[in-house]
Design brief:
The complex is a heterodimer of chains A (156) and B (763). Chain A is globular and about 45 Å long. Chain A contains five helices and five strands, in the order ββαβββαααα. A five-stranded mixed β-sheet of chain A has the order 2-1-5-3-4, covered by helices on one side. Chain A has helices spanning 22-28, 77-90, 99-112, 118-124, 136-150, and strands at 2-7, 10-15, 47-50, 53-56, 69-71. Chain A is α+β, with helices and mostly antiparallel strands and 156 residues long. Chain A folds into two domains: 2-74, Beta-grasp domain (Ubiquitin-like (UB roll), Roll); 76-150, [2Fe-2S]-binding domain (DNA polymerase, domain 1). In chain A, helix 2 (77-90) crosses helix 5. By secondary structure, chain B is an alpha+beta fold. Chain B folds into three domains: 34-131 and 204-255 and 259-291, Aldehyde Oxidoreductase, domain 3; 299-361 and 373-465 and 616-759, 2-Layer Sandwich (Aldehyde Oxidoreductase, domain 4); 467-610, Aldehyde oxidase/xanthine dehydrogenase, molybdopterin binding domain (Aldehyde Oxidoreductase, domain 4), CATH 3.30.365. In chain B, 26% of the residues lie in helices and 24% in strands. Chain B is built from 18 helices and 29 strands. In chain B, the strands form seven sheets. Chain B has a seven-stranded mixed β-sheet with strand order 3-5-1-12-9-10-11, with helices on both faces. A five-stranded mixed β-sheet of chain B has the order 7-15-14-13-8, sandwiched between helices. A five-stranded mixed β-sheet of chain B has the order 18-19-27-28-29. The longest helix of chain B has 28 residues, at 537-564. Chain B is globular. The chains are: A alpha+beta (156), B alpha+beta (763). At the A-B interface, helix 2, helix 3, helix 4 and helix 5 of A face helix 1 and helix 16 of B. The structure holds FE2/S2 (inorganic) cluster (2 copies).
């Protein structure tokens, strides 16, 4: 079947099977930031925004995205830059394989709850696994990011 | 001496690419039209393929090839990434008729799409002769069921004591002094058994590789691997082709932790490319990565630890039974670390030790290398025994360690007779205690809500590379505008070694970090390196970089002197220009770089190697504070303080994050990570739901401090860090649990069930 959707602001038409996931579709469309780490909706690596809300692209059927707006890290480069820099300054991206999913979800958090506490950060991002960092460096980075946007930085 | 670039917490060179989601990993750079490779896997723990019918699969739409044991080469090999001749026996075929664990590959299918490959797999018909399976390591030795009865099974290093007629992969003993006599004189002897399991590395990027033919008829393998040069040899051996026909490229890697020190996936797409002449890619599902991969060796360790009444540790006797699973990858070597990197911690007062081991085959998933590589298991056992000794003596476990821990300058008989040339372990203990507030918090206090807070401590050591074995080369050349190209064979798997090695080069060449471009691994281009494992990169490859840079400096001086028309002896290089002392004239590095591109000048490039007769251990002290709910038995780590001696800290940010990550992996091993197998040998913990790794909400406050010593043989005084940091949580948390409620858990992980049953006095 054919689906039409908006990908990072541009209209896209693609052929999909009824049981293809959004993740499969995005990779087929050449989106490289989106990663997959499991088959059980457990890792968060595949997080993208659907109509502005974070979703696990591995668990959203592609046909359900018809007529909707899908945003990946490729489409949020300027908004994501400051958070990326905060992570880099902590060395909190190690292998980086979890980074795209984490950043997509953390940007959603920052939009929803820019004054999140550490507990709220951990709860919101609990579904984003990272095996390298031990999370504490990422926590420091996200805290710094939230305080920097609170002081007016980084909103492009 | 103060360093400019070494010691700075600079960003990783690839950081911004990673955080902006650039497609830099294996799957991202696969060519279009790559065949999708899938494996049909054995449902039985032990069986022989009686017949296999692939005719319907071959006719299925989109199928390019279906391969069975009849189509695969018949030369046995090992997938272990080790220097040749490997300690791991040559006991594998790409596809074997004899299946030795659930998940062993039965057939390879390659098709245009994943859907087509999976559909074709469903059309293969196999009949199996099911054999009795050996699932318990304790029953493996001399079992009448032989896992590797084949005549062409081969141990390349017979000294390991391997014997396939006994299901034995290694067997041996190492000792110093008369351990029985010393134990007989001790006032207190702790005699206990400890057990650890086949933990999964769970790197976020599972195993994957794609292969393609190149324009010269050679095979290119692009793989998410820690061991590109070993993969070249392994693939060539398995395919029965010359190594010169294989090129291995390593792009960015989504984590490894040792898992990718085994060539778990490469041979399958390589065989497909050989047979079809087409590009082919295999990406392991998470289920495959959980069920047929290269986890930690499950070990059962008996420790006898003797001390005098005043708390002087006199003797340690340890036996390790290690389960290597269906194949011997890393079996003979991991076991050694369980004793050789735990017993030496107590060198200071130890009069005798004995360490013996058996490593056995079973019909379970083949084990491999996981960060810590046997030391993690052994340190859990020895450090737990030391804690038990402290309680038996009525001593503070931290004080017992202060009295007995190895000190700088001591010869460590249990560590291959090497000397602790750099060791700040005593400072680490003091620092970790101070950070956690040991004096106020030991052993426990009860909170108003009934929960109990308690602390526990453990020490750790590891090595820095494999002494006398690991080797690394680095190549550096002067490039345009006076910048440098550094080429290495070490594999950055997220650890940041590309950046760390560039920092070392920038220090040696007195230039800004930005002047160094690093090129990661392509076996056709990069200088040889055994790979990134055994905590070798900073120490071994780092030394190669230092030496290459020294050689390059000499060439820069020679070229500068030639341009200035002065004698080489009169010229010196300060990182920016070569100056002639006599005339005071200078020629800039930039001009030298340009000059080498004109006739009459030599190219300025140097290659040098690193490799060390010793493996200086990094050390660590770790203190855990836990919160225990006596009603549920639930244990939560609330604070973890780690003090690390990794020698000079090259990049504090990267070292800190490595330490934090290692500690949390250790906490996972201590509390929640448990591989589960059913009675038929099937791994039930086959997803991230069943095998639970810590999430952000499980991550406690983790604090890290460095107590650097200076390791003279290392680059700018550095030792290693990657593995040492995973070893303390298990024993520290186990003792905190004991301090909280009196329950001693000797079989990891420490589940609420074990705590509650233990509290009721049940085993
Ligand atoms: S791939 Fe793991 S949650 Fe989507
Ligand atoms: S940085 Fe490797 S998984 Fe998060």
């Amino acid at each position: 079947m054919t689906v039409e959707l908006t990908l990072n602001g541009r209209p896209v038409r693609a052929q999909v099977e009824a049981d293809d996931s959004l993740y499969t579709l995005l990779r087929a469309l050449g989106v490289r930031s989106v990663k997959c780490g499991c088959e059980t909706s457990s890792c968060g690596l595949c997080t993208v925004h659907l109509d502005g809300q974070p979703v696990l692209s591995c668990s959203v059927p592609a046909p359900r995205c018809a007529g909707r707006a899908v945003t990946t890290l490729e489409g949020l480069q300027s908004e994501a830059r400051l958070l990326g820099e905060c992570l880099a300054d902590e060395g909190a991206e190690q292998c980086g394989f979890c980074a795209s999913g984490l950043i997509m979800n953390a940007l959603a958090l920052a939009r929803e709850n820019p004054s999140a506490t550490d507990e709220e950060i951990d709860a919101y991002l609990a579904g984003n696994l990272c095996r390298c960092s031990g999370y504490v460096g990422q926590r420091r980075a996200i805290r710094r990011y939230l305080s920097r946007i609170a002081s007016g930085e980084g909103r492009a | 001496m103060s360093n400019r670039v070494v010691g700075q917490g600079v960003r990783k060179k690839d950081a911004m690419a990673l955080v902006s989601g650039q497609g830099v990993y294996t799957e991202d750079i696969a060519p279009g039209g790559c065949l999708c490779v899938k494996l049909l896997r054995s449902p039985h723990a032990h069986a022989v393929v009686r017949s296999i019918d692939v005719s319907r699969a071959k006719e299925a739409p989109g199928v390019a090839c279906v391969l069975t044991w009849e189509d695969a080469p018949k030369t046995r090999f090992t997938q272990a990434g080790q220097t040749y001749p490997e300690f791991s026996p040559y006991d594998r075929l790409i596809l074997d008729r004899h299946l030795r664990c659930v998940g062993d590959p039965v057939a390879i299918v390659a098709a245009e799409t994943e859907r087509q490959a999976l559909a074709a797999i469903d059309r293969i018909r196999v009949e199996y002769d099911v054999l009795p399976a050996v699932l318990d390591a304790r029953e493996a030795l001399d079992n009448e069921t032989l896992i590797h009865p084949e005549a062409d099974w081969r141990a390349l290093v017979p000294e390991c004591g391997a014997d396939n007629r006994r299901n034995l992969v290694a067997h041996g003993c190492d000792q110093d002094g008369d351990v029985e006599a010393e134990l007989a004189c001790c006032d207190v002897v702790i005699d206990r058994e400890y057990e650890t399991h086949a933990n999964q590395q769970c790197m976020m990027e599972t195993f994957r590789a794609f292969c393609m033919p190149d324009a010269y008829g050679r095979l290119t393998v692009v793989s998410s691997t820690q061991i590109p040069f070993h993969v070249r040899r392994i693939v060539a051996t398995a395919l029965e082709i010359s190594k010169s026909r294989v090129r291995v490229v390593k792009p960015r890697i989504g984590g490894g932790f040792g898992a990718k020190q085994t060539a778990v996936c490469e041979v399958y797409p390589a065989l497909v490319t050989m047979k079809t002449g087409r590009a082919a890619m295999l990406v392991f599902t998470r289920e495959e990565a959980m069920t047929v991969s290269s986890p930690r060796h499950a070990m059962r360790m008996r420790v006898r630890l003797g001390a005098t009444r005043d708390g002087t540790i006199r003797a340690i006797d340890m036996h390790t039974l290690s389960n290597t699973g269906a194949y011997g990858e890393h079996g003979p070597t991991t076991v050694g670390l369980s004793g050789h990197k735990s017993i030496p911690l107590y060198t200071h007062s130890l009069r005798a030790f004995r360490f013996s081991w058996d490593v056995v085959y079973t019909n379970t998933m083949s084990a491999g290398a996981y960060r810590g590589y046997g030391a993690t298991q052994g340190i859990f056992a020895v450090e737990s025994a030391v804690n038990e000794l402290a309680h038996a003596l009525g001593m503070d476990p931290a004080a017992l360690r202060e009295a007995n821990a190895v000190r700088e300058g001591e010869v460590m008989p249990a560590y291959y007779g090497e000397t602790a040339g750099s060791c700040a372990l005593s400072r680490c203990i003091a620092r970790a205690k101070e950070m956690i507030g040991w004096a106020e918090k030991y052993p426990r206090r009860t909170l108003p809500n009934g929960h109990v807070r308690a602390v526990g401590i453990a020490l750790s050591m590891q090595g820095s590379g494999i002494s006398g074995v690991d080797t690394a080369s680095a190549a550096i050349r002067l490039a345009d505008e006076g910048t440098y190209n550094l080429s290495i064979g070490a594999t950055d798997m997220g650890t940041g070694c590309d950046t760390i090695l560039a920092q070392i080069a920038a220090e040696a060449l007195e230039c800004p970090l930005s002047a160094i471009s690093v090129h990661g691994v392509d076996t056709d281009v990069s200088p040889y390196d055994t790979g990134s494992y055994a905590s070798s990169t900073t120490y071994v490859t780092g030394m190669a970089v230092v030496r290459a840079c020294e050689a390059l400096r000499a060439q820069i001086v020679r070229a500068g002197a030639k341009l200035l028309g002065c004698a080489q002896e009169d010229a010196s290089f300060d990182g920016e220009a070569v100056a002639c002392e006599a005339s005071g004239r200078r020629v800039s590095l930039c001009s030298i770089a340009e000059a080498q591109m004109t006739a009459g000048m030599d190219a300025i490039a140097a290659v040098a190697s690193g490799g060390s007769p010793t493996s200086p251990p990094p050390f660590m002290a770790g203190c855990a504070e836990i919160d225990l709910d006596p009603l549920t038995g639930q244990v939560k780590v609330v604070d973890f303080a780690g003090a690390v001696d990794c020698g000079t800290v090259v990049n504090p940010n990267l070292a800190r994050v490595q330490t934090e990550g290692g500690i949390l992996q250790g906490i996972g091993m201590a509390l929640c990570e448990m591989p589960v197998m059913d009675e038929r040998g099937r791994t039930m913990s086959n997803s991230l739901l069943q095998y639970r790794i810590p999430t952000r909400q499980d991550a406690p406050r983790i604090r890290v401090a460095f107590e650097p010593s200076y390791e003279k043989s290392g680059p700018y005084g550095a030792k290693s860090i990657g593995e040492c940091v995973i070893n303390t949580p298990c024993a520290a948390i186990a003792d905190a649990v004991y301090n909280a409620c009196g329950v001693r858990v000797r079989d990891l992980p420490i589940t609420p069930e074990k705590v509650l049953l233990g509290a009721k006095g049940e085993p």
